[in-house]
Design goal:
With 276 residues, this protein is α/β, with parallel strands linked by helices. The chain is 45% helix and 12% strand. It folds into two domains: 10-35 and 127-273, HAD superfamily/HAD-like (Rossmann fold, 3-Layer(aba) Sandwich); 39-122, no CATH class. Strand 5, helix 8 (214-222) and strand 6 form a beta-alpha-beta unit.
Amino acid sequence: MTAAQPVEIEICPGFSPRSRPTHAVFDFDGTLSLLRHGWPDIMLGMFMEMLPRQTGEDDAVLHAELHDEVLAYNGRQTIHQMVRFAERMASRGAQLREPQFYLAEYTLRLERAINARSQRIRDGAGPDSFVVPGARALLEQLHARGLKLYILSGTLEPYVKQEAALLDLARYFDGRIHGGHEDPTRFSKQMVFDRILREEGIPGTRLLSFGDGPVEIRHTKELGGLAVAVASDETELGSGKVHALKRTQLIAAGADLVIPDYQCHQPLLKLLLGDR
């Protein structure tokens, strides 16, 4: 993590303050947690390793194409990325395999990194070493002001709950932690957003969301809520720099504000909540 730098908040043209937001939904990986830091590189490495090449194909061009696609799927359950990759493999004449085969291999590779980081915390490293800068301060402020906070992640729910507890973040959410399901038809972020509004009896205008994937940004805007894009550059955390491709995709999805992390939590709160 680089030394902390001043963080600017990019205000997008569609931004309009909300008078009384009452509920805030956070994506988890890359938005709060860094335990899965580097997952796109792990996924891309596997894809590049397995994908048969076409005659004269440029690896750099292929890598860029796959990278764009991986980030475009960010926020959805990982199985959807594997379904798309299985289609690519089949289109190139590779051995036909189910998407679950690729998911299992990717999960195995990713878990090596997660397990090493988790062990560092258990051995005494502070959990904030693996939390997006400023996130805890923002959560504390929102929780203290009485907003109901939710985690909504495409990662399988048991892992999200385990990792949120390990990072000492679960206590801000009072059990409101939602994650993916092994049967992808039983979970989507849209389903959970709709359930929150229905069960809480609130209009979408009371909703804030924070995420680094287009999915949660798009759903929030469709419901009339306020969407904060966390375009974190995980290779230079704390630098105040945004990830250029994430920024482009998140603005296209309808983001109201763009930040690289939460070191700007005080001015961010003023924008989101006014003088509340």
